[in-house]
Amino acid sequence: MSDSSVAATTGVLLAAGAGTRLGRGPKALLPFQGRTLVEVLSDVLLDGGCTDVVVVLGAEAERVRATVDLGQHRTVENTDWAKGMAGSFRAGVAAAANGSNVLVALVDQPGLTPEAVSRLLERHHPGRVTAAAYPDVSGKLHRRHPVIIDAGLRAEAAEAANGDTGARSFLKAHPGLVDLVDCSDLCSGDDLDTKDQLHLLG
């Protein structure tokens, strides 16, 4: 492990969406591995080495809280979830422990594994952004989630967030800060957005 792995990293799981395109209610509650997506993915972040996990809820937040067991994780609510991912991103970053890096993950990536999270944490360097990446057919890597944002960059990244972009605006403005880490041998980077992707739930 690099020296930077000593730094505390809070996992921020964005789980506020309504899952409108899937038509099955909030993605957080989709059944997965005998539990729900939000439960499994929260534990993946913790098992992968995050110091703690903040789960950002939004759509039907009370039903999600009443349905799932997130006892070892913290939850915050983005009441403006319908306006896009930016509000959830800011809420998660604000709730992360002071002085910690943040690893931002999406609840609709059922293929994420603890091993991929561990690799990102191990490869992270102070003052940088570390992003999971997956190659296209030509072998070129493309940035996806999760993304680790160094503690010193958190505030600027949150301020830059707007609409449904989350950290994308900040990352596009500072491409030289981003280190891509190929995770394709450890997990799938596919997002679960449409009904024809329900097979990702296994």
Helix and strand pattern: EEEHEHEHEHEEHHE
Counting DSSP E segments of at least 2 residues, the number of strands comes to: 9
pLDDT < 50 stretches = 1-5
Largest sheet: 7 strands, mixed
Amount of beta strand: 15-25%
**What is the alpha-carbon Rg in Å?**
16 Å
CA distance, first residue to last residue = 32 Å
Give the class from helix and strand content and strand pairing: alpha/beta
The amount of helix comes to: 25-40%
The chain-level mean pLDDT equals 88
The coarse overall form would be globular
Q: What is the number of helices? A: 6
What's the layout of helices and strands?
Elements lengths: L8 E7 L15 E2 L2 E2 H11 L4 E6 L3 H7 L6 E4 L7 H11 L5 E6 L7 H10 L5 E7 L5 E9 L4 H7 L7 H6 L4 E5 L20
Parallel strand pairs: 1-4, 1-6, 4-5, 7-9
Antiparallel strand pairs: 2-3, 6-8, 7-8
Description of the structure:
The protein is an alpha/beta fold and 202 residues long. The protein has 6 helices and 9 strands. It has helices at residues 37-47, 61-67, 85-95, 114-123, 154-160, 168-173, and strands at residues 9-15, 31-32, 35-36, 52-57, 74-77, 101-106, 129-135, 141-149, 178-182. The strands form 2 sheets. Strands 5-4-1-6-8-7-9 form a 7-stranded mixed sheet, with helices on both faces. Strands 2-3 form a two-stranded antiparallel ribbon. Helix 3 runs antiparallel to helix 5. The longest helix has 11 residues, at 37-47. The termini are far apart. Mean pLDDT is 88; it is low at 1-5.
Quick summary:
The chain is built from 6 helices and 9 strands; from the N terminus they run βββαβαβαβαββααβ. By secondary structure, the chain is α/β, with parallel strands linked by helices.
